[in-house]
Every structure is written in structure tokens, then in C-alpha cells.
Design brief:
heterodimer, A: alpha+beta, 3-stranded antiparallel beta sheet, 4 helices, 3 strands, B: mainly alpha, 13 helices, about 70% helix, elongated
Chain lengths: ~110, ~325
Amino acid sequence: MTNTDMREPTFLVLSALANGRKHGYAVITEISELSDGRVRLRPGTLYAALDRLREEGLVAVAGEEVVAGRLRRYYQLTDVGAVRLAEEAARLQTNARNALRRLRMRAAGASA
Amino acid sequence: MNPSTAFGFTASRLLLRVAIRAYPRAWRAAHGEELAGVLLDVAAGAGRSGPGLVELAHVSAHGVMTRVTGWRDILPVGVRRRATTLAIASGAALSTVCFLFAEWGPWLRAGSGYGPQVGPFLTLAPVSYLAWAVTFIYALVLPAAARRCMAVTLALISLSPLLADLSGWTPAPRYLLALLAMLATVAILGPVSREPRDRLEVLGLGAFLTAAGVVTFGVRTGFDAEYLYRSEGTGRFPVLGDTVGLVVATLLVALVLSWVRGREWGGAVALNAIPWLVAPIPLVSLDRLMFTDRAGFVCLMAAVLGWVLHRSGVRLRVRSST
């Protein structure tokens, strides 16, 4: 049973961090790629999400460095965050599978 | 719209600094440079020399929201998460005990004469008790929704006296509602623990400690509606007279937990002792003897409580206007 439905930006932030630690700008570009350019997260939204996810223990700070005079702080998924993301992905997958099956039944009904 | 084209490079950087100043100082110290870097990276990625006005406005709005919820800087995440979970369990246990021993139950003495009954119940309080029970269940199985449920419970508790006035039913004792409202306030300070084992441990601990404490102290004086409710007319508040004992017991548990499980556990328990310590204070005009008897002890407990909270990382800071 999942805790509750996860909002898309939260799901995408966790997904962006699923394959390794990333800094803020990398998370934004990764989300843009993951959503085929449909979701363009603003920095304010990103930090609101990161604040909340750190508070809930789903992501954690994983080092920092200075590049071209700009501070880059890296974030990574925690074990709890990975479980939560896996639960949400499974939920979405089930919903999508059920929806597609019903659409196929509808199409089959229409052609019969 | 890109401010750099209108005001030049320096104006763009100036606006960036102004936008980030919308955040509280502690947040800026922790994330200001990082956020500025991300905004400049985003602008560079879009082929601009500085961030756009919409992005800056968005950042300012988030900064203001962070200021509004600035209490987050005071409580470490580990303390807040456990304290909120503990408060939900504590309020639910207190509600259950009051429901079983004051409102409803075959063991209750008939004809208490407390006031006009509300159906099978003594007062309107079961409405608030039920809301606490639902919140506890949410915290157990749907922790992400527990905070919203707690907010509804707090609203119900706050509206309960008004509802009693409008309906003519017997209101719940106001001091008990005040205690539950204070626990509810602690409970909405943050999200409930998401880690299942941590959550179950904290919920179990809070429910057990509160129920055991209230029952143990109540048994001494005859444990029923007389003990839990019935003193507003007489000016005596036996249950609140016992809260000092409950606070002492709670702080002892906090100290033991600090040592065994870590300081954040101790801080979470100590934070939950505050409502019990504060609850009798407004009653000083009604039950001066009870209060003055215990005033010195209350101060001592407040000092111990402050020390446990300080050890857990809780810091009260006076913010400058900058």
C-alpha cells in the first residue's frame, strides 16, 4: 500500500536522483529530459521540493563543489526515498496497465 | 522577459540578490549561494546572462513561504518528525482514555449530573476524540495524509465550544480541549515519520506513555469522569493537578531515551511535555492553591525540559530584521 499519491514534480525529482547524485541544475535538466521537455521545473519549485524531501528523509545532501565560482551541492536518494519511488512507480505502472487493458477491450468491443 | 536586457548585467545580479533575500537568513546561509548558482546555470542554459523576472518572482515567493514557515529552523528534522508523530499518539491515547472513562463505558457511574447528555455520551467531546482516533489511524497507514487530518482535528477542537453554545449540548471541558489543541499544534509542526519501523515505535511509545501515565495517576484519586472532567464547577482540577507528575515521568523517559536511542528521541518526548506543563497555568485564577503548590516544581521541570531540548539540537533564535 502506498502512503498517498505523489505529485508529478516530486516523482520526477526522485526519478532524476535514482541513478546517482546530482546538483540542482542537473536535476532540472534531467527532469526536462525525463518528461520529454514537458516539465520545466523552476529553481524555486525545485528547492521547495528538495526542502520537503530532505525533511521527509527521502533525499539527502551528498557533497558539494565550486565550479566556475558557483557552489554546486549534490543530492542523492536515500534508501527510504528509493522504496517510496519504487512504490509510486509500481502504482503508476499498475494504473497504466489497467487503463491500456480496458482501452484494448473497448477497441475490441467496437470492432466486434 | 529578461531583466539583463533592460537593466544590464549588474542590475540582473542585483535583482538576483534581492530575490534571494526573501529567504530567512539561516536558509540563505545554507542554500543562498547554491540557489544563485542554479539560477545562473538555468539562465546560461537558456542563453541569457541572468535569470528571468518570472524565475526571480518565483524564487521570491518561495522565500516568503520559507519565512512564514520559519519555525523549521528551530527544530531539527529528526526531533520534529518524531515529536509530531508522538503528539498524534499522545492525543489519541488521552482521547481514548477520556472516552472510555468519562464519556462512555458500562463501568461509568450512572447519573453523574454533569449536564445535559449528548445521546449516550456525557459531553460533545467524543467528536474531538473521534477525530484524534482517525488521525492516529492515518498516521499508522497513510502518514502522508496525517498532517491534513490533524489540521481538521485541530479545527474541530477549536470550534467545539462554539458548537456547544449553538447546540445547547454540554461542552467538553475547556481545559481538556486546550490541552488537546496544544498537542495538535505540536502534531502539525511537521510530517509524520515515513520510515515504518520508526513510525510504529514512536506511535506505540506515545500511546503507551500517555495512556499509562493518565491511568496511573488517575487511579490514585478514583478514575472516572469526576477525575477527568468534573471540576470546572467546583474550581478543582484533579487531572491537571497530576500533570506535574506526568511531566516528571515524561522527562525521565526523555532522559532515558536521550541516552539509549539518541538526543533527538529525547527532544521529541520533551517537546510533547510542554502542553502538559503549560495546561494548568491558565487555571491559576480558578485553582490558585493547586497552582501555587506546584509553581516551584513547574519552574524546575521547565528548566529540565529546556536542557533536554537544547541537548537535542533545538535552538531558539531571535531573528534580526535583515
